[in-house]
Amino acid sequence: MTNMNEDEKYIDLHTHTTSSDGSMTPEELIRHAYSKGLAAVAITDHDTIGAVEQAIEEGNKIGIEVIAGVEISVDFSTELHLLGYFLNGGYEPILRMLKVLRKMREQRNSKVVNKLNELGVSISLDEVNSKAAGGIAGRPHIARTLVEKGYVEDMVDAFDKYLGVGKPAYFKKSKLTPREGIAEILRSGGIPAVAHPIYLDMTYEQLDSLLGELVGYGLMGIEAIYAGNTDEQTAQLLELAKKHHLLVTGGSDFHGSYKPDIEIGSGRGSLKVPYSVLTELRRAVQKPWVTGKTHELI
Ligand code: AMP
Ligand code: ZN
Ligand code: FE
Ligand code: FE
Fold first, then answer.
1. Does the pTM of the predicted model rise above 0.85?
2. Amino acid 134: pLDDT
Protein backbone atom coordinates (compact mmCIF):
# COMPACT_ATOMS: atom_id res chain seq x y z
CA MET A 1 0.00 0.00 0.00
CA THR A 2 2.70 2.49 0.99
CA ASN A 3 4.57 2.07 -2.26
CA MET A 4 1.55 2.88 -4.34
CA ASN A 5 1.35 6.12 -6.17
CA GLU A 6 -0.86 8.62 -4.29
CA ASP A 7 -3.07 8.99 -7.34
CA GLU A 8 -4.02 5.33 -7.17
CA LYS A 9 -4.99 5.40 -3.51
CA TYR A 10 -8.49 6.36 -2.45
CA ILE A 11 -9.96 7.46 0.84
CA ASP A 12 -13.28 8.37 2.50
CA LEU A 13 -13.38 11.29 4.91
CA HIS A 14 -17.06 11.14 5.91
CA THR A 15 -18.40 8.04 7.70
CA HIS A 16 -20.73 7.23 10.60
CA THR A 17 -20.55 4.30 13.05
CA THR A 18 -22.85 2.89 15.73
CA SER A 19 -21.59 5.70 17.98
CA SER A 20 -24.03 7.92 16.08
CA ASP A 21 -26.39 6.80 13.32
CA GLY A 22 -24.38 4.28 11.31
CA SER A 23 -25.05 0.55 11.35
CA MET A 24 -21.44 -0.64 11.71
CA THR A 25 -19.28 -0.71 14.82
CA PRO A 26 -15.96 1.16 14.47
CA GLU A 27 -14.12 -2.14 13.91
CA GLU A 28 -16.62 -3.35 11.32
CA LEU A 29 -16.46 -0.06 9.45
CA ILE A 30 -12.66 -0.06 9.32
CA ARG A 31 -12.55 -3.68 8.16
CA HIS A 32 -15.20 -2.89 5.55
CA ALA A 33 -13.17 0.10 4.30
CA TYR A 34 -10.09 -2.12 4.09
CA SER A 35 -11.99 -4.74 2.11
CA LYS A 36 -12.94 -2.02 -0.38
CA GLY A 37 -9.26 -1.17 -0.79
CA LEU A 38 -9.37 2.28 0.83
CA ALA A 39 -6.10 3.68 2.14
CA ALA A 40 -7.58 5.98 4.79
CA VAL A 41 -10.90 6.70 6.48
CA ALA A 42 -12.09 9.52 8.72
CA ILE A 43 -14.71 8.69 11.33
CA THR A 44 -17.13 11.63 11.49
CA ASP A 45 -19.92 10.70 13.87
CA HIS A 46 -22.51 13.29 14.85
CA ASP A 47 -21.54 15.04 18.11
CA THR A 48 -19.10 12.39 19.33
CA ILE A 49 -15.57 11.13 18.89
CA GLY A 50 -16.43 8.02 20.89
CA ALA A 51 -15.67 5.61 18.03
CA VAL A 52 -12.33 7.11 17.05
CA GLU A 53 -10.06 5.30 19.49
CA GLN A 54 -11.41 1.84 18.62
CA ALA A 55 -11.27 2.64 14.92
CA ILE A 56 -7.64 3.74 15.17
CA GLU A 57 -6.72 0.55 17.03
CA GLU A 58 -8.38 -1.57 14.36
CA GLY A 59 -6.74 0.52 11.63
CA ASN A 60 -3.30 0.00 13.18
CA LYS A 61 -3.98 -3.72 13.35
CA ILE A 62 -4.99 -4.22 9.73
CA GLY A 63 -3.05 -1.40 8.10
CA ILE A 64 -5.41 1.41 7.14
CA GLU A 65 -5.09 5.03 8.23
CA VAL A 66 -7.83 6.38 10.49
CA ILE A 67 -8.41 10.10 10.98
CA ALA A 68 -10.20 11.50 14.02
CA GLY A 69 -13.19 13.53 12.94
CA VAL A 70 -16.62 14.72 13.97
CA GLU A 71 -19.72 16.22 12.34
CA ILE A 72 -21.79 18.90 14.04
CA SER A 73 -24.92 20.71 12.90
CA VAL A 74 -24.93 24.47 13.40
CA ASP A 75 -27.76 26.96 13.49
CA PHE A 76 -28.71 28.11 10.01
CA SER A 77 -31.75 28.60 7.80
CA THR A 78 -31.02 25.33 5.95
CA GLU A 79 -28.86 22.31 6.88
CA LEU A 80 -25.38 23.56 7.70
CA HIS A 81 -23.11 20.80 8.98
CA LEU A 82 -19.47 21.22 9.90
CA LEU A 83 -16.84 18.53 9.75
CA GLY A 84 -13.84 18.74 12.09
CA TYR A 85 -10.68 16.80 11.23
CA PHE A 86 -7.62 15.89 13.30
CA LEU A 87 -9.30 16.87 16.52
CA ASN A 88 -7.19 16.59 19.60
CA GLY A 89 -9.58 14.31 21.46
CA GLY A 90 -7.58 14.59 24.66
CA TYR A 91 -8.43 18.27 24.79
CA GLU A 92 -11.06 18.99 27.45
CA PRO A 93 -12.92 21.88 25.75
CA ILE A 94 -13.87 19.81 22.70
CA LEU A 95 -15.11 16.98 24.89
CA ARG A 96 -17.14 19.47 26.91
CA MET A 97 -18.61 21.00 23.77
CA LEU A 98 -19.62 17.61 22.35
CA LYS A 99 -21.19 16.73 25.70
CA VAL A 100 -23.29 19.90 25.56
CA LEU A 101 -24.38 19.07 22.00
CA ARG A 102 -25.38 15.57 23.08
CA LYS A 103 -27.37 17.03 25.97
CA MET A 104 -29.24 19.28 23.52
CA ARG A 105 -29.96 16.20 21.41
CA GLU A 106 -31.31 14.29 24.42
CA GLN A 107 -33.57 17.20 25.32
CA ARG A 108 -34.92 17.31 21.79
CA ASN A 109 -35.47 13.54 21.68
CA SER A 110 -37.48 13.72 24.87
CA LYS A 111 -39.69 16.52 23.45
CA VAL A 112 -40.28 14.50 20.28
CA VAL A 113 -41.21 11.34 22.18
CA ASN A 114 -43.58 13.26 24.49
CA LYS A 115 -45.24 14.85 21.50
CA LEU A 116 -45.59 11.48 19.75
CA ASN A 117 -47.19 10.07 22.90
CA GLU A 118 -49.66 12.98 22.86
CA LEU A 119 -50.45 12.10 19.27
CA GLY A 120 -51.33 8.58 20.34
CA VAL A 121 -48.05 7.00 19.24
CA SER A 122 -46.87 4.81 22.03
CA ILE A 123 -43.07 4.69 22.05
CA SER A 124 -40.64 5.34 24.89
CA LEU A 125 -37.24 7.02 25.13
CA ASP A 126 -35.79 3.71 26.32
CA GLU A 127 -36.92 2.01 23.13
CA VAL A 128 -35.38 4.80 21.05
CA ASN A 129 -32.10 4.71 22.99
CA SER A 130 -31.88 0.94 22.64
CA LYS A 131 -31.77 1.47 18.85
CA ALA A 132 -28.63 3.52 19.30
CA ALA A 133 -26.65 0.55 20.67
CA GLY A 134 -24.86 2.64 23.27
CA GLY A 135 -24.25 5.50 20.84
CA ILE A 136 -26.16 8.73 20.44
CA ALA A 137 -29.81 8.61 19.51
CA GLY A 138 -31.26 11.05 17.02
CA ARG A 139 -34.24 11.25 14.69
CA PRO A 140 -33.13 8.21 12.64
CA HIS A 141 -33.40 6.07 15.79
CA ILE A 142 -36.84 7.48 16.57
CA ALA A 143 -37.81 6.73 12.97
CA ARG A 144 -36.61 3.14 13.24
CA THR A 145 -38.63 2.67 16.43
CA LEU A 146 -41.73 3.95 14.62
CA VAL A 147 -41.11 1.53 11.75
CA GLU A 148 -40.53 -1.40 14.08
CA LYS A 149 -43.73 -0.72 16.01
CA GLY A 150 -45.75 -0.45 12.82
CA TYR A 151 -46.69 3.22 13.11
CA VAL A 152 -45.10 4.08 9.74
CA GLU A 153 -44.09 2.19 6.61
CA ASP A 154 -40.42 3.14 6.53
CA MET A 155 -37.89 5.81 7.52
CA VAL A 156 -39.05 8.24 4.83
CA ASP A 157 -42.66 7.81 5.98
CA ALA A 158 -41.55 8.54 9.57
CA PHE A 159 -40.04 11.87 8.53
CA ASP A 160 -42.97 12.71 6.24
CA LYS A 161 -45.60 11.98 8.88
CA TYR A 162 -43.93 13.02 12.12
CA LEU A 163 -40.26 13.94 12.31
CA GLY A 164 -39.42 16.16 9.37
CA VAL A 165 -39.32 19.97 9.46
CA GLY A 166 -42.83 21.35 9.91
CA LYS A 167 -44.34 17.94 10.78
CA PRO A 168 -46.32 17.43 14.03
CA ALA A 169 -43.47 15.96 16.11
CA TYR A 170 -40.71 18.20 14.75
CA PHE A 171 -38.63 20.10 17.26
CA LYS A 172 -35.63 22.19 16.49
CA LYS A 173 -32.46 21.18 18.30
CA SER A 174 -30.50 23.94 20.06
CA LYS A 175 -27.31 24.42 18.14
CA LEU A 176 -24.11 26.43 18.14
CA THR A 177 -23.89 29.30 15.70
CA PRO A 178 -21.67 28.71 12.66
CA ARG A 179 -19.09 31.08 14.17
CA GLU A 180 -19.07 29.17 17.47
CA GLY A 181 -18.88 25.77 15.77
CA ILE A 182 -15.89 26.81 13.67
CA ALA A 183 -14.17 28.38 16.68
CA GLU A 184 -14.62 25.23 18.80
CA ILE A 185 -13.12 22.98 16.12
CA LEU A 186 -10.18 25.35 15.66
CA ARG A 187 -9.61 25.55 19.42
CA SER A 188 -9.08 21.81 19.59
CA GLY A 189 -6.57 21.82 16.77
CA GLY A 190 -9.05 20.63 14.17
CA ILE A 191 -9.65 21.65 10.57
CA PRO A 192 -13.21 22.93 10.18
CA ALA A 193 -14.88 22.18 6.84
CA VAL A 194 -18.40 22.67 5.47
CA ALA A 195 -20.06 19.28 4.94
CA HIS A 196 -22.17 18.38 1.87
CA PRO A 197 -22.71 21.94 0.56
CA ILE A 198 -25.49 20.68 -1.74
CA TYR A 199 -27.77 20.28 1.28
CA LEU A 200 -27.54 24.02 1.87
CA ASP A 201 -29.82 24.36 -1.11
CA MET A 202 -28.14 27.57 -2.30
CA THR A 203 -27.31 29.14 -5.61
CA TYR A 204 -23.67 29.53 -6.58
CA GLU A 205 -23.79 33.21 -5.64
CA GLN A 206 -25.40 32.55 -2.26
CA LEU A 207 -22.83 29.88 -1.45
CA ASP A 208 -20.04 32.17 -2.58
CA SER A 209 -21.20 34.80 -0.13
CA LEU A 210 -21.77 32.33 2.73
CA LEU A 211 -18.27 30.91 2.27
CA GLY A 212 -16.85 34.43 2.42
CA GLU A 213 -18.55 34.90 5.78
CA LEU A 214 -17.47 31.50 7.15
CA VAL A 215 -13.88 31.98 6.04
CA GLY A 216 -13.98 35.14 8.14
CA TYR A 217 -14.73 32.92 11.16
CA GLY A 218 -11.84 30.60 10.34
CA LEU A 219 -13.35 27.99 8.03
CA MET A 220 -10.54 26.00 6.39
CA GLY A 221 -12.20 23.46 4.13
CA ILE A 222 -15.16 22.45 2.02
CA GLU A 223 -16.46 18.97 1.18
CA ALA A 224 -16.40 19.62 -2.54
CA ILE A 225 -16.31 15.90 -3.35
CA TYR A 226 -19.47 14.22 -2.07
CA ALA A 227 -21.53 11.16 -2.92
CA GLY A 228 -24.66 13.18 -3.71
CA ASN A 229 -23.01 15.70 -6.05
CA THR A 230 -23.49 15.86 -9.80
CA ASP A 231 -20.25 16.36 -11.76
CA GLU A 232 -21.30 19.93 -12.39
CA GLN A 233 -21.84 20.60 -8.69
CA THR A 234 -18.43 19.15 -7.88
CA ALA A 235 -16.82 21.36 -10.51
CA GLN A 236 -18.52 24.47 -9.08
CA LEU A 237 -17.55 23.55 -5.52
CA LEU A 238 -13.94 22.99 -6.53
CA GLU A 239 -14.00 26.41 -8.16
CA LEU A 240 -15.39 28.00 -4.98
CA ALA A 241 -12.78 26.16 -2.90
CA LYS A 242 -10.07 27.70 -5.04
CA LYS A 243 -11.60 31.15 -4.89
CA HIS A 244 -11.82 31.12 -1.09
CA HIS A 245 -8.46 29.33 -0.60
CA LEU A 246 -10.22 26.43 1.08
CA LEU A 247 -8.91 22.90 1.43
CA VAL A 248 -10.93 20.31 -0.42
CA THR A 249 -12.33 17.38 1.54
CA GLY A 250 -14.36 14.46 0.26
CA GLY A 251 -16.45 11.57 1.44
CA SER A 252 -19.48 9.37 1.00
CA ASP A 253 -21.41 10.03 4.25
CA PHE A 254 -21.49 6.28 4.77
CA HIS A 255 -24.12 5.02 7.26
CA GLY A 256 -23.92 1.28 6.52
CA SER A 257 -27.20 -0.54 5.97
CA TYR A 258 -29.18 2.49 7.19
CA LYS A 259 -28.40 4.24 3.90
CA PRO A 260 -27.95 1.18 1.69
CA ASP A 261 -27.55 3.16 -1.52
CA ILE A 262 -24.30 4.70 -0.25
CA GLU A 263 -21.17 2.55 -0.19
CA ILE A 264 -18.01 3.46 1.66
CA GLY A 265 -15.47 5.09 -0.64
CA SER A 266 -17.51 4.85 -3.85
CA GLY A 267 -20.73 6.49 -2.60
CA ARG A 268 -23.43 5.93 -5.21
CA GLY A 269 -20.92 4.24 -7.49
CA SER A 270 -18.75 6.93 -9.01
CA LEU A 271 -17.28 8.72 -5.99
CA LYS A 272 -13.49 8.88 -5.87
CA VAL A 273 -11.61 10.81 -3.21
CA PRO A 274 -7.88 10.74 -4.01
CA TYR A 275 -5.34 10.30 -1.25
CA SER A 276 -3.83 13.68 -2.16
CA VAL A 277 -6.84 15.31 -0.41
CA LEU A 278 -5.59 13.89 2.87
CA THR A 279 -2.02 14.92 2.17
CA GLU A 280 -3.17 18.52 1.70
CA LEU A 281 -5.18 18.41 4.93
CA ARG A 282 -2.20 17.08 6.87
CA ARG A 283 0.00 19.79 5.42
CA ALA A 284 -2.41 22.40 6.76
CA VAL A 285 -2.19 21.24 10.34
CA GLN A 286 1.20 21.48 11.87
CA LYS A 287 0.23 20.12 15.23
CA PRO A 288 2.20 17.46 17.12
CA TRP A 289 -0.83 15.18 17.38
CA VAL A 290 -1.16 15.16 13.61
CA THR A 291 2.42 14.54 12.67
CA GLY A 292 2.99 12.26 15.68
CA LYS A 293 2.00 8.66 16.18
CA THR A 294 -1.55 7.72 15.27
CA HIS A 295 -2.36 6.35 18.72
CA GLU A 296 -1.97 9.86 20.11
CA LEU A 297 -4.82 11.02 17.88
CA ILE A 298 -7.65 10.15 20.23
P1 AMP B 1 -30.89 14.54 13.75
O2 AMP B 1 -29.40 14.75 13.71
O3 AMP B 1 -31.34 13.79 14.96
O4 AMP B 1 -31.66 15.80 13.52
O5 AMP B 1 -31.21 13.57 12.51
C6 AMP B 1 -30.75 13.94 11.25
C7 AMP B 1 -30.67 12.70 10.38
O8 AMP B 1 -31.99 12.27 10.09
C9 AMP B 1 -30.02 12.96 9.03
O10 AMP B 1 -28.64 12.69 9.08
C11 AMP B 1 -30.74 12.00 8.13
O12 AMP B 1 -30.06 10.75 8.13
C13 AMP B 1 -32.07 11.78 8.76
N14 AMP B 1 -33.11 12.53 8.04
C15 AMP B 1 -33.37 13.86 8.11
N16 AMP B 1 -34.42 14.19 7.32
C17 AMP B 1 -34.83 13.04 6.74
C18 AMP B 1 -35.89 12.70 5.82
N19 AMP B 1 -36.74 13.63 5.35
N20 AMP B 1 -36.01 11.40 5.43
C21 AMP B 1 -35.17 10.44 5.91
N22 AMP B 1 -34.17 10.70 6.78
C23 AMP B 1 -34.00 11.97 7.19
ZN1 ZN C 1 -25.49 10.70 10.07
FE1 FE D 1 -24.48 15.78 7.61
FE1 FE E 1 -22.81 12.78 7.85
1. yes
2. 76
